[in-house]
């Protein structure tokens, strides 16, 4: 359960290619502290203790000759091996959550803070936050964006998407939904949800 001594904890999630970063930047422009799970986790690959765990899990094949972890090689393994993915997540997720708890505590004066991750429900983090905001975009538009952004093939993109819950299920489970279609009033949606989250934070404070 969320900790009442912290600000309201809000997860921002959505499938790959749905435009979470753009939405996150709108919340940042409103002064909301935002924690990006993937960026934080990426920094762990500079930590010798974490690298030792990666070596134990994957072996030398995922390291360059100068001892740098090859994250692309790790990704290829875990996308093909659900057990390896689960083991990698067991290394990363608890550490990320601990870092987010510290982040939230340093922003205790803020009404709410955002934890951004594409896999809130897959990682069973939804029960640790107060609210979940989903960014939704239809599959065809997401694929088109990812082909343009990542220069990936449709087959590669579908493989990545299959690792996540269907976007429609995430949308149904979330407390708030932002429809991120081109031309949709995204800023207005963010402002409306921001007002609701401020009200929820105020209500919790009593």
Give a quick precis of the structure:
Helices cover 53% and strands 12% of the residues.
Structure description:
By secondary structure, the protein is of the alpha/beta class. It folds into two domains: about 1-35 and about 110-205, P-loop containing nucleotide triphosphate hydrolases (Rossmann fold, 3-Layer(aba) Sandwich), CATH 3.40.50.300; about 40-105, P-loop containing nucleotide triphosphate hydrolases (Rossmann fold, 3-Layer(aba) Sandwich). It contains nine helices and five strands. The protein has helices at about 20-30, 35-45, 50-60, 70-80, 80-105, 140-150, 155-160, 165-175, 185-205; strands spanning about 10-15, 35, 110-115, 130-135, 175-180. Strands 2-3-1-4-5 form a five-stranded parallel β-sheet, with helices on both faces. The model has no long low-confidence stretch (mean pLDDT about 90).
What's the structural blueprint in terms of helices and strands?
Elements: E1 8-13, H1 20-29, E2 34-36, H2 37-43, H3 48-58, H4 71-80, H5 82-106, E3 112-116, E4 131-136, H6 139-150, H7 154-161, H8 167-173, E5 176-179, H9 186-205
Parallel strand pairs: 1-3, 1-4, 2-3, 4-5
Helix pairs in contact: 3-5, 4-5
Mean pLDDT: 91
Radius of gyration: 18 Å
Q: Uncertain runs with pLDDT below 50, 5 residues or more?
A: none
Order of strands across the main sheet: 2-3-1-4-5
Q: Give the overall silhouette.
A: globular
| Helix-strand string | EHEHHHHEEHHHEH
How many structurally independent domains? 2
Largest β-sheet summary: 5 strands, parallel
What is the number of E strands? 5
CATH fold-level label of the largest domain: Rossmann fold
Terminal residue distance? 18 Å
